[in-house]
Amino acid sequence: MKRFLLISVFIIGAVSFIAYKASLLPLDSQSEDRIKVEIDSGTSVTQIASLLRAEGVLRFKLGFLAFVRFHKLDSKLQAGIYILQPSLSVPKIVDALQSGKAEEISVTIPEGFTILEIDELLAQKGVIEKGELQDCALNCDFSSFEFLPDSFEMAKRGGKLEGYIYPDTYFVSVKEFVPKFFLERMMTTFKHRIIEKYPEAMLSSVRPFSHVVIMASLIEEETRVDEERAIVSGILWNRLDAEKGLGVDATVRYILDKPTDVLTLVDLSIDSSYNTRKYRGLPPGPIASFSEESFKAALHPEETEYWYYLHGTDGKIHYAETNDEHNANKAKYLR
Questions:
Q1: Sequence-separated (6 or more) residues with CB below 8 Å from residue 291
Q2: What distance in Å separates the CA atoms of residue 283 and residue 5, rounded to the nearest whole number?
Q3: Into which CATH architecture does domain 24-99 fall?
């Protein structure tokens, strides 16, 4: 009987230990989600466990409570705003909560992103509430940045800042994040990477700097690889100088906030000065952030005999010198 009891105790202990270890594992080790969790001063360990479970960070509350109490860390968990991930184990979550502050996280702004898309990205990462960055872009005072255009028909999506913020990887503190400061950082990077590196763009008497910026944004949205950029730039500048319509569908997508869906005839007939199918000339402002390569292409277009281009279903770009040739390319490559 004693032997049976000892074996039973051993089995129960082993199962309990395995269960305890399992309760410390990440909720989802493959997840890349970042979840904003705010712990107020005076929150108990039990309440913290419930909050973490409710926010989708913890697998089991009991595992968290057992770990904290076994290691006597009840009084060491601090209030604060944290960015936590379902891929974190309980020990790593506890380590973060002992720090009393959220570590900086990296935020990569892809080339071609608009202010609205950056706003949505930051909201997804738990850095801001959705709409905060866009509201600041439209309403905060950025008059100290002299390279911003004096005036144009402001798109309600991004205002004057659209196209003048540089896509890059930025490290931000969730606890101390201020939308205005972040936008100023992005514009300062734009100043270093574009204006200071290509001073000829500001001094040129051929084309206003703001026009080159707008063109760079069109090139960013209309091309897929660097080899295409200078050629497409030459085509668009030629069309602009000849007072032909640019016919850039990306400008319609921008004003409609329709980045991927098929454009309908109703979409293409929208009465907006951003509709380059309906109105000749450049749109009033840039339609996206852009890479240095797109800016270089806008500044130094390649001269060709082409007047048209399209990306086919074969994944390649096809150029044409005449409208008939362009229509033939449509029939052949847009099937």
A1: 111, 167, 220
A2: 83
A3: 2-Layer Sandwich (3.30)
**The token pair that represents 72 in the structure block:** 């006597």
| C-alpha count within 13 angstroms, C-beta hemisphere, residue 224 | 8
Our CA angle for 125, 129, 132, nearest 5°, is 115
**Distance from the Cα of residue 204 to its chain's centroid:** 32
Q: Which residue, 192, 181, 89, is CA-closest to 141?
A: 181
From the centroid of its chain, how far is CA 278?
29
Q: Sign of dihedral through CA atoms 312, 163, 128, 174?
A: positive
Tell me which residue of 22, 102, 94 sits closest to 57, measured CA to CA: 94
What is the overall mean pLDDT for the chain? 88
Q: What amino acid is encoded at 317 in this protein? A: I
pLDDT tens column, 133-191: 999 999 999 999 999 987 655 566 788 899 999 999 998 887 778 999 999 999 999 99
HSE of 321, CA atoms in CB hemisphere, 13 A: 3
Task: Give 256-302 as a DSSP string.
Answer: HT-SSSPPPHHHHT---TT-TTTS-S--SS--S---HHHHHHHHSPP
22 pLDDT more than 80 = no
Q: What is the residue whose two structure tokens read 């150029």?
A: 319
Provide the angle, in degrees to the nearest 10, between the axes of the packed helices 179-190 and 132-139.
70
Give 178-195 as a DSSP string.
Answer: -HHHHHHHHHHHHIIIII
Closest CA to 147 of 178, 110, 186: 186
Domain with CATH 3.30.1490.480 in the chain: 24-99
Which residues neighbour 248 within 8 Å (Cβ) at sequence distance 6 or greater?
218, 221, 222, 236, 276, 277
3-state helix, strand, coil in the chain (%, to 5): 45, 10, 45
Here the tokens at position 96 are 């973060």
